Amino acid sequence: MAAQSGLSHPAPGRGGVSVFPPVPLSAEAAPFTPMEPSGWRPGSQSEAEKLFSNCAIKLRAMRVDSVQLKEELNLLFDQLLSENYNRTFEPADVCSLLKHASCLVPLTQEHLVIKLCQVVHHLLNQLKVIMDEHTLDVLVNYTAGALKVCSTWTHTDVLLALSTVVYGNGPQCHQHLSDLLGEEGFLLQYSSPSQSNMELRRVALTCMANICLRIPGQPPLDDQYRSVCFRAFLKTLQSTKPPDTDELYYCMMIQAALKGLQCCLSGGKWKFGGGEELGSVLAALKRLMFQGAPGVIVEWPAVLYPAPLPQYESLSAAKAAESPKSLEPPKDAANKKRKSKGKGKKMKTEESRGDEREGDAETVPAPPKGRAEEKQPASFLYPSWKLNSSDSEFSDLEGNAQSKLRYRKVNHGRVRQGALHCLLAVVKAVEKRTLYGYWSSFIPDSPIGGPPPLTLLTIILKDLSPKVRLCALQVLSAMLDGSRQFLAVAEDTASPRTSYTPFSFTLATAIRELHRTLSLALLAETSPQTLTQVIKCLAYLVANAPYHRLRPGLLTLLWKHIRPYVRHRDVNVRVSVLTLYGALVTTQAPLPEVQLLLQQPDHSSSTGAFTPQDSGLREEDSRRLWLLQLCVTLVTQPREDQSDSEGVGGGAALEPPPVRLEALQVLSHLVRGYFPLTQHYLCEIGQVSARCLGEMDTSIQLHGAKLLEEFGSGIIQQYRAENNVPESSRVPISQVVQFWSEVLSGPLNRALQNEQHPTLQASACDTLSSILPQAFAQLPDKTQLMCITVLLGLTYIENYLVKTAAVRALGIYVLFPCLREDVMFVADTANTILAALDDRSTNVRAKAAWSLGNLTDTLIVNIVGVDFQEELSDMLLLKMLQAATRAAADKDRVKSNAVRALGNLLHFLRQSQMTRPAFQQPLEDAVRALVKTVQSEATMKVRWNACYALGNAFRNPALPLDSAAWSHEAFSALCHVVTSCKNFKVRIKSAAALAVPAHRGCYGDTERFTRVWRSLATALENSEDTNDFLEYRYSASLRHTLSQALLHLLSVSQSQDMLGLSASLASEEGTGIREHLIKYLRAEEGGGEEAEKDIRGESLHPRERIGSVEQILIRIKGLKCLLIGASFDSLPFDTLKVKVPKANL
């Protein structure tokens, strides 16, 4: 039965007018509908808009000569200040009002000036109006004039208005910056440490910070004024609190300076001087990181210097005598701590945080001397800033003092938070290599004896504010991100030396300390946001630390600690846990410790706090990969615990998309890094991928296709001959064929044809390219034809992502043994690639050039088949040659593979084709393109590819090297590069190319042959001259290749060449040649992969080298008899013949 009652007092509107009439409350009452025109309606003007419009009308009607102007303006400004504006107005209306108001208020009326400045601040701050340049100029002029004319007591409000006006508009105020930030500028005067008015100083610093603030898309402030502001902010941060200054105002001033320094550093590189300035900033920020932390009473250094060891802060002189040497916990407290092991989760978490903090000497208050026997309260072992109101001894009468204390803690926390935000900006602005020198000041190792240093880890474990701990974790994450090259030095597998501690061991100790501290924070953290950042920070650490150089055990403990959080109720925590698992299975994969963790299920619970969730994750079968099963469950199964907001109101809902996406990424990482363990789950992974491809969410589909691609790539790696995987350890071909048959008949085919999502199409093309060639040959013919037809068709899609992926896939297919002899497929692929080489997208052209290089590799494989050469169209070859020549003049990304294709094509051409007039000019253009690329300033990869391409072209016996006009240019370019290029790999490729021609006639006349010899001899003599240490590692390979090339020239030399060779070997240059040749014959010139093969790719044992040299000697002795008047007594070949066998037998 519905009770009826009325509203006796209707809600009054503005002016006491009832907005809504009385309505009886009843279940049968009609639903609420908007009122008639007399009442409120949607879309009608709000009271704030009406007030603003009325004020604007009144303001425009006012005149300067009005008698009651002062009173009217005062009333109008009060009305504007009384309203809270929560709706956006037209910027032009607001700007017009403010400009007109500034014209009506003279600077002599200081009270009105203050009111106007308050209105400016109020409107611009609430409405977020973007001012036009004229309004900005008018308001800055007005406020700057007020600072010059009005009394000092008005300047606080004037500066507040100015700070709102210049917010993000610093570069547009360049006309006024000299008055504000010049040597005698107002802002510099009021922000100076000599300024006693803290509020005025704070507002001036805020104004400077807003000037430095950079809005995305706008140019930054001029470096001159940014440096001025930077020095002012740094000077403020370095100054101490005046003795008679209120703590609140001092903290607010420091917050303004920190915000300003952050604005100076955000969005750019460090431009404020060298190490002294950086050290000063870091020292000031480190001091402010611990602002207001009880028990932290130390003398902070004014400057931090780069050092491999931490710079410990010394105790303050005033407190040194009071600091205890050691502090033993009372026995009753220890007993109480032992008894509390059986308490609940929350108590245990708090105790873990408390136990961590007890060991920090800086935060434990010292008992007064002579009172050590007195019984301490239970909270004595907690840091003083861990105590909450229930632990304090304030009475109800002292509530006001207690609230002040709490407010003081809040402001100190904001200072610490601002300092960490600013430190994060410094970390992002300074180069990594520069910042590494300061790591020891913020990331400690494990010091032996003495109090632990105050670092970021201290804040992460000890600070009471979760926001401050979150900021510290963000800074630490930024420092760890990209630090792999620096941390790669760390090593502690060997026993440490007693005489000194190497830096590698110190760095390894720091990594272990990071693991220990972050693991403690993981167990103690209660804030979900901060917990998420703890796990992300651990992921950065795992991704960059060299665990293969560290003693095992770190990842095992971390694996155990992180496992309970996979069922955490917060979605972000679950996502970050999966990110950490992804880092664990990615770092230096396959890592033996991680491999054992994957194979051994963890039956132990961590602390007992998460046993209900953890029990569902245990696997009885030790052969099952727990992590893989977990990810499959998260992707495919409904979530058991529906406590999250995303599961409310629905049935058996799946995990949220971020969790499922991260789980799919972990699966991809797991397959890539530990394929031998995951290959047994072929069917499960195929089912997961098929399910993902069949969903509506494009992101899920993309990750499903990526998982298929990773699995296909893993199978391909198993079947590569160079990996030497036993047949019994590979995935059987029959299973691979069945796997791909099911995939290609399922949703992958639909993804390939999904034109609404080009990214998905591109990913599906990449998946097609990861099919094992042996398995592709056993697929049904219609399936093979479907793959080829789809890829050929997708190359005509306008979207560059799809076209790039399709062209790349065809470039892989053309290498398949079952397809490379199919002339029709090769021709179709060639025509498709030629069309893609003319695409306007650089990405498409680069991938097309790569595919063309692969296609021409196929031509070289088929060069022995006469039928293939005859069936392939000459016109198509000509088109490929011309297209590759044009691509060789493209960008370096395209050029590197275009020259590779040119070398293959020049190698493939037959004599009958070269003699045709249609081929002669393109042939010459192609060789000249290679010569130009060798001599160019392109990237080294492009140049050594061009050298290799020339050597590849020289392998064609039909190429007229002896008579062609371009032959001289080709040899000259190679001779120049082999002696002068700074990159040793380019020299190696050029030397190998010079040794390719198989006959003496290919080298031309005696003059050219001698020049090639002297170029190789000079390069051998200078093979150790380099200023780049990275190039020195290739010097042995270079000498090896040069020695081979010189011996090759000797082997093909003729009698007319003996005079030049004799002169070279008899000179001082010949002495070096003999030494290097002897080393080469003794197999002392190794140098890596090139050591075991000659320039033709043939394996050369040291005995074979000696045998080839003996043949060369016999041949040269035969040439002696043909040359009259030449003395060969100085030739060192007899010496080589005698010494080498003795050294090798």
Automatic annotation (TrEMBL):
**Record's InterPro entries?**
ARM-like, ARM-type_fold, DUF4042, HEAT6
Domain named DUF4042: which ranges? 414-594
Q: Where is this region: Disordered?
A: 320-377
Ranges annotated as biased composition (Basic residues): 336-346
One Pfam family in the UniProt entry: DUF4042
Enumerate composition-biased segments (Basic and acidic residues).
Answer: 347-356
Q: What is this protein called?
A: HEAT repeat-containing protein 6
Source organism of this protein record = Oreochromis niloticus
- Gene for this chain: heatr6
